[in-house]
Design goal:
binds uridine-diphosphate-N-acetylglucosamine; alpha/beta; about 500 residues; eleven-stranded parallel β-sheet; elongated; binds calcium ion; UDP N-Acetylglucosamine Acyltransferase, domain 1
């Protein structure tokens, strides 16, 4: 028999057709994850921005199960519920009080599910590369072959810690042997168990018969295969996807491997959609990020969370964008950080700009070098090009914010708003002490400290008037040395009697 046929052969005992069975899903996440050596539960470690468990969970949810149960452990229960809180309506959580093994974990889930009448998809919580397509394929094979137990398997050149699949003479899978229990005859088996299973109720009923493994003192879910065969149920094991898709994560080395693959998967998916990367291996993109065709991404860019990048955007080197929207044809120049913000069409931000949460930079606006913006709107076509802080402000259309302008939004206790209306010109090095508003079409003279509202169409200027004392420098030079020194000292301490000097020093 060919190797391929061998892999898909099933046992000959038929059970009644379950083609239209209702479907439930169970995700096993109650283990201790001790090999991670981390206080964070293993399945909550982020992989490309999302907790590891969300990948097998979403793969299962795509099949629209009627019920979905997550098995949690004592140490992870609250944290897992919290991490998945936005999906909680679709989920039940079953607490496995003691991590007594994967078999015991499924038993715990079954208590939560009750007497579920249909097929049950079971997925380990620690293989993030699994896809919905693979789960679907296994379900199809499971139903076609009318199996009571089906599992995903793969061929591993180095089977490492995976359970080995033992087939009988006619190719039917009859047993799974964990690494620690391998006999010498089983040592060369390269087909291994992926951690993706589908069970019918008659197989699930055998969970209670699983005995504790002698070496590990755990109830192994994998023993259900042998028990099913003994009970005369049909079993099948299928290589439904390449091994990498099943890469399990038990330690940080495996986490890094899985995450690197996920990262490449994301980037190649976006490349196929028409996103251009100048150095794809240096770019980090989370799995919920979207990029429209025609976006151009320079090296060392990080796009995180729910960021979206529009058509024709350019993201220059060393930029980090978190949970933000960058609209069509906008650009983010080098070394900028954008958090929870929106950059409008054709707008330009950076280099070295920081948009903190709640910033909206509208169409064609420009936010330049060393400008920090927080919780503010920057109107259409407005420019703040150099060295500014704009916090808790509404800035209108076509405003010019001069270099070094600062909104003083915090009085030490409360934050206050600054309003700068359309067409205003703020001269360089001005401070706007909030709450304050500068009305439409006004000007603020450079170097002003604005503490009162500026009426429409006016000029506000608050700096001291400039005096020019002609010939002063020459007189200073000519003055006898000793006297000059005393004069200087006096004026520095503010006691000078010389009108001229005091003016100049201040
Ligand atoms: C398991 C399989 C192995 C398979 C491999 C695929 C068993 C006995 N072995 O091994 O055949 O090749 O997955 O990656 O199942 N869990 C619980 N409660 C527990 C113990 C574990 O919910 O008491 C959960 C874990 O959180 C994890 C999953 O079950 O998400 C798998 O457990 P793990 O200990 O990682 O099993 P492996 O040793 O990888
Ligand atoms: Ca594992």
């Amino acid at each position: 028999m060919s190797e391929e046929k061998k892999k898909t052969r099933t046992s000959p005992i038929r059970k009644k057709q379950k083609g239209k069975d209702p479907l439930a899903a169970v995700i096993l996440a109650g283990g201790l994850g001790t090999r991670m050596k981390s206080a964070l539960p293993k399945v909550l470690h982020p992989v490309c921005g999302k907790p590891m468990i969300s990948y097998p969970l979403f793969a299962a949810l795509r099949l629209k199960p009627e019920r979905t149960v997550i098995v949690t452990g004592r140490a992870s229960h609250e944290q897992i519920i919290h991490a998945l809180s936005s999906y909680k309506d679709a989920l039940s959580f079953a607490l496995q009080e003691k991590p007594l093994g994967t078999g015991h974990a499924l038993l715990t889930a079954m208590e939560a599910l009750g007497a579920f009448p249909g097929s049950i998809i079971v997925l380990n919580g620690d293989f993030p590369l699994i896809t919905a397509g693979t789960v679907k394929k296994l379900l199809q094979l499971h139903r076609q072959n009318k199996n009571a137990v089906s599992l995903g398997s793969f061929i591993a050149e180095d089977p490492g810690p995976y359970g080995r699949i033992v087939r009988d003479g006619s190719g039917v899978p009859v047993r799974i042997v964990e690494k620690s229990d391998l006999s010498s005859a089983e040592k060369d088996i390269k087909e291994v168990n992926s951690g993706l299973y589908i069970f019918e109720p008659e197989a699930v009923a055998l969970l209670a018969n699983i005995e504790r493994n002698r070496a590990k003192k755990e109830y192994y879910l994998t023993d259900i295969l042998a028990l099913s065969r003994l009970a005369g149920l049909r079993t099948g094991a299928y290589t439904v996807a390449p091994g990498q898709e099943f890469a399990g994560v038990n330690n940080y080395r495996e986490l890094h491997f899985a995450e690197a693959r996920m990262r490449r998967r994301i980037i190649s998916g976006l490349s196929e959609q028409g996103v251009r990367f100048l150095a794809p291996d240096t770019v980090f993109i989370d799995s919920d990020v979207t990029c429209a065709p025609g976006a151009l991404i320079y090296p060392n860019v990080h796009l995180q969370g729910r960021t979206s990048v529009g058509k024709g955007c350019i993201i220059y080197p060393n930029v980090r964008i978190i949970d933000s929207a960058v609209r069509e044809e906008a650009s983010v120049l080098d070394s900028s950080v954008i958090e929870n913000s929106e950059i409008g069409k054709h707008a330009q931000v950076g280099p070295f700009a920081h948009l903190r949460p709640g910033s909206l930079v509208k169409t064609s606006a420009k936010v330049g070098n060393f400008v920090e913006i927080k919780n503010s709107t920057i109107g259409e076509g407005t420019k703040a090009m150099h060295l500014s802080y704009i916090g808790d402000s509404s800035v209108g259309k076509s405003v010019n914010i001069g270099a070094g302008t600062i909104t003083c939004n915090y009085d030490g206790v409360n934050k206050h708003r600054t309003v700068i209306e359309d067409g205003v010109f703020i001269g360089s090095d001005s401070q706007l002490v909030a709450p304050v508003s500068v009305k439409k079409g006004s000007f603020v003279g450079a170097g002003s400290t604005i503490t009162k509202d500026v009426p429409r169409g006016s000029l506000a200027i608050s700096r001291a008037e400039q005096k020019n004392i002609e010939g002063w420098a020459k007189r200073r030079e000519l003055a006898p040395k000793k006297q000059k020194k005393t004069e200087d000292n006096k004026s520095a301490s503010g006691k000078s009697k010389s009108k001229e000097n005091s003016g100049a020093v201040r």
